Methylthioribose-1-phosphate isomerase (Chelativorans intermedius), 367 residues
Amino acid sequence: MKVEGKHFRTIWVNEDGWSVDLIDQRWLPHEFRVETVRTVAGIATAICDMWVRGAPLIGVAAAYGVAMRMREDPCDAALDAVWEELHATRPTAINLRWALDEMRNLLRPLPPGERAAAAYRRAAEIADEDVELNRSIGRHGLNIIRRIARGKKPGEPVNILTHCNAGWLATVDYGTATAPIYLAVEEGIPVHVYVDETRPRNQGAHLTAWEMAGHGVPHTLIVDNAGGHLMQRGKVDMVIVGTDRTTAQGDVCNKIGTYLKALAAHDNGVPFYVALPSPTIDWTVRDGVKEIPIEERSEDEVSLVWGRDTEGRIRQVRIAPQTTPAGNPAFDVTPARLVTGLITERGVTEASAEGLAKLFPERARTA
Ligand code: MRU
């Protein structure tokens, strides 16, 4: 997508053919910074410390990490070690494991001398595929927005609520939940987006609001607790969120707080959609609520808040007593029964084993 008129993806390989540049999201919306990463340790830090985040993007970053290691040392032991090292960075988004498996399965049968080049090729393909998957998600999701728009008075916007950032910054480009929104805007459909701030890290306030502002999408930032009230007052036509891992039964794991939005949507008859590319489906887990590992992050993310002060300095401030302990589960699971539909690259389906198996018969059979 464009930043000040220039097209950017979130990650790309430099002219040297092996180091990568990535948008360092920690500084947005205040500063747009690009970092160069040259080592596997650098990729691991970028994922752990959330310079890059969002399920599809961390998968792509990890794929480039594997390629970097193969350039230094293409032996089998190095391949296994880099898989472990990068897999340990974040536990919840399944795209990370998916990308690491893709890389290892491709590279293992190759002679070591061919591994580095093949790894960079496959990492670039995974990045390009992500863009295509998101475009397709966008087209399918657009049909839903069109349908809602047809029931509106001329000029009246379709009001969409979203949580966290499942935008282009969470992917290589376009985003998952935002792809239908961007296409609707391109088509001239009036939309308005309620952006949940998404405590504790404020991905909504920092990233989604920045994306919406940058692309001229009318939007309003709301506190996480406002969604239920707005739904009761009929101010939300649909919810679209992304996901870090969706089970074959349609349970949806996403940023903490998504479940509460789904409950409020269900109670108020507001359609609740989840946008996801197929690498986000975990075909192995049976019960999402019990089995998906939920990342527990630092207490500091809850007790300290980042912002820019009136003198223009980006800094953290403490919002709780120094001695108060904080808990920080980063994700929750929304049971399939609360999900109106899954928007995938192959179309929209109900959140159920049957629905997903119909769209992805080849995966469902082997799971
Ligand atoms: O902790 P984050 O910022 O990586 O969490 C991101 C999300 O929860 C997104 O909604 C999810 O990864 C989907 S991204 C297309």
